[in-house]
Amino acid sequence: MALQLACKATSRACNKAGIAMLFGLAGEVNSTGDDQKKLDVLSNEIFIDALTNCGACAVLVSEENEDPIFVPEDKAGRFVVAFDPLDGSSNIDCNVSTGTIFAVYEKKSEKNATVSDILRTGNDILVAGYCMYGAATELVISFKGHGVHRFTLDPSLGEFVHIQAHVQLPEGGGKKIYSCNEGNSRNWDAAIKGIIGKWKDRHGDKPYAARYVGSMVSDVHRTILYGGVYLYPADAKSKHGKLRVLYEGFPMAFIMEQAGGAASCGMFKGKIQRLLDIVPETIHEKCPVVIGCKRDVEAVLEEYKIQGLC
Ligand code: FBP
Predict the structure, then answer these.
(1) What residues does the Fructose-1-6-bisphosphatase class I N-terminal domain cover (predicted)?
(2) Residue pLDDT, tens place only, 229-246
(3) Residue with the nearest Cα to atom 7 of ligand 1?
C-alpha cells in the first residue's frame, strides 16, 4: 500500500512537472554519478517517506542513495525494498514515459537488518513490480506464484483499478520486436552483433521491428504485452552493461519470468547466467540484461554457442 501511494504521488508530480517547474536538473549527482533531475530527487523523497513510515520495512536501497537506508527501530518491519524511484530519467524533460521499479524481500537477519539482507539472489524476491507514468499511469505487480497483475490509475477516484489478471507474454513469443540501444552496437560482442544482424536480415522473411523508448519500464511493458525481447547487453565500454541488478535487473526479470518469459544476463563474469541466479556483491552493481519471450532470449543464448563464446 505504501508503494502504490508513492506511485500515485509520483504520477501526479510527473503530470504537473511543466507547471510546477520540476523539469531540469537538481544540481546534484546520484550514487552512480548520474546528474539528478528535480523529479528524481522528489520521487526519491516520496518513496523513502512512504516506505519508512509504513511500519513494514527494515532497510531500503534506492538508485538515488549511495548507501542502504536503515529504518529507525521504532518504525522498522520485516521487509526489504530495492527501488528505482524514477527510471528513464533521460526522458523526463521531453515528457516521454518514465517509471518506478521495485522488488521486495523478507529480511533474514534475526535482529536488526544488515546489507546482507539485500545482497542475495533474485530467487528470494517475494514481490516485484513497476509503475509506468505514460498516457495512463499503470502499475504492474506480481506476488511470487500468484501471477502478474495490471492496474490503471483512475485519477477521478485516485485509485488503481485492476484491469488485467494473470498477464502472460503472447503464445509463441508474439510480435518479432527487438529493443536495444543500437548506438552501442560497435562495442557489442560477436554474439549480440550476430543475433541482431540475423533479426534484421531474415533472408526474405519480414525482418524484426526495432522499438526503443529508452525507458526500461516502457520497453519492458511493451515486451510483456506484445512480445519480443529487450536487451541492454554488456559491451567493450561497459563491461557489466548499464542497468543495476537490485532495482532494475532483478525486478524486471522476476516479472518477466512470472509472465511466462525468460530473463538472462547473456555472458556475465565469463559464463551465461540466468539473471535471477546472480548474487550481487554491492548494492549498485550492474549486470547485462536480456529479457523477453523465450523464443528470442534462447536465440540470443544460442548465438553465443554458434559464435563459440561459451
Ligand atoms: P536511469 O535509471 O538512470 O534512468 O537509467 C536507466 C535507463 O534510463 C533505462 O530506463 C533505459 O532502458 C536505459 O537507461 C537507457 O540507456 P541508454 O540511454 O544508454 O540507451
Answers:
(1) 1-164
(2) 999 999 999 999 999 999
(3) 88
- Evaluated on CA atoms 48, 52, 54, 58, the torsion sign reads positive
pLDDT digits (tens, 9 = 90+) for 125-144: 999 999 999 999 999 999 99
Q: At which residue does the C-alpha cell 509504513 appear?
A: 54
Cell of 145: 506464484
User: If you compute the radius of gyration of the chain from its CA atoms, what whole number of angstroms results?
Assistant: 19
Task: Report the chain's mean pLDDT, rounded to a whole number.
Answer: 95
Q: Are 50 and 83 in contact (CB under 8 A)?
A: no
- Residue count of the chain: 310
Least confidently predicted of 29-33, 183-187, 193-197, 255-259: 29-33
- Ligand 1 pocket mutation pick from 188, 215, 244 by most atoms within 8 angstroms of CB: 215
> Which residue from 61, 184, 216 has its CB within 8 A of the most atoms of ligand 1, so it is best to mutate?
216
Amino acid at 306: I
